[in-house]
Amino acid sequence: MDHTVVEGTVVENRGALFEVDVEGRRIMCLLRGKLKRDKRTQAAPLAAGDRVKLALLEPGRGVIEQVLPRTSDLSRRAAGSVPLAQTLAANVDQAVIVFAAAEPRTNFYFLDRFVVMATASGLDQIVCINKCDLVAADALGEDYALYSRIGCRLIFASAHRGDGIAELRAALTDRRSVMCGPSGVGKSSLLNALAPGLSLRTTEIGYTTHKGRHTTTSRTLLPLPFGGWIADTPGLRQVGFHELGRDDIVAAFPDLHPYLGRCRYSSCAHQQEEGCAIRVAAEAGAVSARRVKSFLQMGGAR
Question: From start to end of the chain, where are the E strands?
Fold first, then answer.
């Protein structure tokens, strides 16, 4: 029996089922057996944002017959002892990396790992610092400003007070974005402030703490009422790299580029070696010593 074959976009992975958007209709699909995951490389067969061809079996039901080539994906190393890739979102063109100014306070080394992951994926980057209403304005200083200088768009926001929401909405309009970051930084609260109709769940601790805990448990592609889509992802406790080379790490540290290759010794590990151009630059304040440490921790010197 022949079935109509159409194209659509995966909006959510529900285990054995995939919810696919086909011109505004939501179709629940199984995956054809031949397409099931390659356990040697991928933690899951499909991700939010994947374009697929599916056969319509009955109203609201289908089978995914083909996965179309990706234009991009944001991936990390999946948790576990086997080195598998876990794709957070496919076919997106920018990453919105959300951290909090407080509760929890920004871990800049962790933020650097998100920037490396997005850079390696070829995505434009927005670094959005939420909960800015919880700190004094002078606390949003040099450590954050650095990300603007290395090519990220920097937005200071408060989902609670409304700061930065209009700027973030403009940056997302008519784009395919993925929102990522650690737990508890208020990603769902930001999305609710951007588009109240989404009504995403948060766990409110109260106005005295402003701790809106992110309760997203799956990677979901959401249509935005002002144009565009955004993949909402669960909070990540770690960002391990999958098949990332030294060049990928170096590309995310343009602030260090003027000093790379200028050390006295070509094998310089940028520690205590005599004639290390990067160490001298850090001691002189020309580059951030913290950024140098982050670069080395990720294997930039190897």
Answer: 5-14, 17-22, 25-31, 51-58, 61-67, 73-77, 85-90, 94-100, 124-130, 153-156, 176-180, 202-204, 212-214, 220-223, 229-232
Instruction: From the options 3.40.50.1950, 3.40.50.300, 1.10.10.10, 3.40.50.2300, give the CATH code of 87-232.
Output: 3.40.50.300
Whether residue 252 is predicted with pLDDT greater than 70 in this model: the reply is yes
Fold of 246-297: Ribonucleotide Reductase Protein R1; domain 1 (1.10.40)
Strand partners of residue 154: 127
User: What pLDDT does 209 receive?
Assistant: 42
- What mean pLDDT is predicted for residues 197-218? 51
Q: What is the DSSP letter of 48?
A: T
pLDDT top residue among 277 and 244: 277
What type of residue sits at position 194? L
Average confidence (pLDDT) over 239-262: 92
Token reading at 113: 């790992």
